User: Which sequence fits this backbone?
């Protein structure tokens, strides 16, 4: 039986929100079993709490956001990916602004800080999200599905109408072992946010991307990233795996199952998450 985990010691992360351009500070603290991943907006009156769960999922353009009452938190996907890959079940994150820091556009620093804080094994078994049958969700662009499996695995297929973003595929097995955490830290966590040059202008017009620059966002034109270089030849698909892992952890629980996605983004992921939660609850009531 796998036990729940939290961090061993408190940790601090500072930076600027990628979309809002606002300065922000995060204080991460260990939390007791079954507390889950909880954000606290320490800059708002009454320090409102926003638990990471599908009920608090809030639709936002090109990022993942959570909302409870008046309190919102934006761009949670990269820190959630790090927490998921390290199998951290419980942590309290105090945040003093509306958006997580963008850092270098990847999850590299989040993983580094969390691993430095250390993992603490708790004495309560972990509960998982699982399904009895496969589920598939699709929209006009892509698909995402789960196939029941003992393990948690993600496969992503990226295919844009762009020669540098064509037919890229990446996969990862996530089991919380040292080997799996090392693989994530080395191969997936450093993959940065990207967009096409033509989409960058749309984002700026919408008042987004205020904290973005050519170093934390790969702005890709016909030749490659403008004023930058890829960390991996297939960095974009690796970042898609990262975003998907983070989005899936909005479930607040780790998954047992094989996830296969093709061109899915935050919007389709959120539909899938809600469906997955329903199916998992059906299975639980059946067992009970
Ligand atoms: Zn991302």
Assistant:
């Amino acid at each position: 039986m796998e036990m729940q985990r939290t961090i061993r010691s408190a940790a601090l992360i500072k930076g600027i929100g990628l979309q809002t351009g606002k300065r922000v500070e995060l204080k991460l603290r260990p939390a007791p079993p079954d507390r889950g991943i909880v954000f606290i907006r320490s800059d708002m009156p009454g320090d409102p709490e926003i638990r990471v769960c599908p009920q608090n999922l809030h639709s936002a353009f090109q990022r993942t956001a959570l909302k409870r009452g008046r309190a919102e938190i934006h761009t949670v996907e990269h820190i959630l990916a790090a927490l998921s890959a390290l199998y951290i079940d419980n942590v309290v994150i105090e945040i003093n602004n509306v958006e997580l820091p963008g850092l270098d556009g990847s999850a590299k620093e989040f993983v580094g800080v969390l691993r430095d804080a250390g993992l603490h094994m708790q004495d309560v078994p972990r509960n998982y999200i699982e399904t009895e049958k496969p589920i598939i969700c699709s929209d006009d662009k892509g698909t995402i599905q789960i196939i029941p499996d003992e393990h948690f695995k993600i496969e992503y297929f990226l295919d844009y109408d762009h020669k540098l973003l064509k037919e890229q595929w990446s996969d990862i097995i996530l089991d919380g072992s040292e080997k799996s955490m090392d693989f994530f830290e080395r191969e997936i966590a450093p993959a940065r946010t990207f967009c096409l040059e033509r989409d960058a202008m749309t984002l700026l017009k919408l008042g987004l991307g205020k904290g973005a620059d050519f170093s934390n966002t790969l702005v890709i034109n016909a030749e490659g990233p403008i004023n930058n270089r890829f960390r991996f030849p297939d960095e974009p698909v690796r970042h898609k795996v990262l975003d998907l892992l983070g989005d899936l952890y909005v479930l607040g629980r780790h998954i047992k199952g094989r996830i296969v996605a093709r061109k899915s983004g935050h919007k389709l992921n959120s539909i899938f998450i809600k469906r997955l939660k329903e199916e998992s609850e059906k299975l639980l009531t059946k067992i009970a």
